[in-house]
Write a structure and sequence with these properties.
The protein is of the alpha/beta class. The chain has ten helices and eleven strands. The ligand Nc1nc2c(c(=O)[nH]1)N[C@@H](CN(C=O)c1ccc(C(=O)N[C@@H](CCC(=O)O)C(=O)O)cc1)CN2 binds next to helix 2, strand 4, helix 6 and helix 10.
């Protein structure tokens, strides 16, 4: 029996470091470009979690000296109205990055909206052009959460090449792009999902296990290989019996930490890295668009 517990991969600290570096870069670039980088955030409806994330993104922009252009629409806003606003933002010279906060109300077609964003302003890296560049291994704007996972692995010098990486979850936001990024770094990649049979058998083979299922504490210690790197992409708010809410990931931290060599916490792991990579993408577009 191991008496040690996993080393924490501190996404919060790395995100702060990245944001500090971006702030310095902006200070250098701004006098030459004559304006700060600008990020437009579109939110539709009143999902409370989305409202918190949007506010955090706007605060993060302000901290770095970036301009943010918030567009908050009522839940019943039409597809056409939103597409018109995105087209205007595509033409707005003050805007370097555009993102549509997800999830959207069910009457909206998120894929069609993402298509409307100019690929060079696609701060979330979800436009088919940027996803296509990722498939081809070309440079382009990368999806923020997967890019945050890769950057965190790099920071802790965790070797990916030749390792078996198992991604649990196949969303367009995380699972699919992350699988491609891991593949680009020469990992052997398995993407598991809700229809995967004998899931535990597969997760137990992972040198690097990424949980992106959206189910609280779904992956337990008995599903993890001894010495694995366990990355938690989930952020689930759970209301306890005393009515207090806590945040938990898709990993059951208590049982996974004693088995893994490295683990990301929730909060303080991949969440802050997502925001840092969003700001990074926006500054990249700012630089490239000059
Ligand atoms: N257009 C997008 N929509 C969504 C994305 C995305 O990347 N692009 N990801 C998630 C939500 N999200 C960003 O939008 C996000 C979620 C959580 C965090 C974060 O820093 N979480 C903190 C805890 C915050 C809290 O107290 O609630 C942490 O994990 O430490 C950042 C970004 C879905 N939608």
């Amino acid at each position: 029996m191991r008496s040690t517990t996993a080393c924490l991969l501190n996404g919060k600290a790395l995100a702060e470091k990245i944001q500090g570096d971006l702030k310095e870069l902006i200070t250098i670039l701004q006098p030459k470009i004559g304006r700060p980088p600008g990020l437009a955030v579109l939110m539709v409806g009143d999902d409370p979690a989305s409202a918190v994330y949007v506010r955090n993104k706007e605060r993060a922009c302000a901290k770095l000296g970036m301009a943010s252009f918030g567009h908050h629409f009522p839940g019943q806003t039409s597809q056409t109205e939103l597409e018109k606003v995105i087209q205007e933002l595509n033409q707005d010279p003050r805007v370097d990055g555009i993102l549509v906060q997800l999830p959207l109300p069910p009457h909206l077609d998120s894929v069609a909206l993402l298509h409307t964003i100019a690929p060079e302003k696609d701060a979330d890296g979800l436009h088919p052009m940027n996803l296509g560049r990722l498939v081809r291994g070309e440079s382009g704007l990368r999806s923020c959460t997967p890019a945050g996972v890769m950057r965190l692995l790099e920071e802790y010098q965790i070797e990916v090449a030749g390792k078996h990486a198992v991604v649990v979850g196949r969303s367009i936001l995380v699972g699919k792009p992350l699988g491609l990024m891991l593949l680009k770094k020469n990992a052997t990649v398995t993407i598991a999902h809700s229809r995967t049979q004998n899931l535990a058998e597969i997760t137990r083979q992972a040198d690097i296990l990424i949980a992106a299922v959206g189910k609280p504490q779904f992956i337990t210690g008995d599903m993890v290989k001894q010495g694995a790197v366990a990355i938690d992409v989930g952020i689930n708010r759970i209301v306890k019996s005393d009515d207090n809410a806590i945040l938990v990931g898709d990993l059951d931290f208590e049982s996974v930490a004693p088995v893994a060599d490295y683990i990301t916490p929730v909060p303080g792991g991949i969440g802050p890295m997502t925001v840092a990579m969003l700001l990074y993408n926006t500054v990249l577009s700012y630089q490239d668009r000059q």
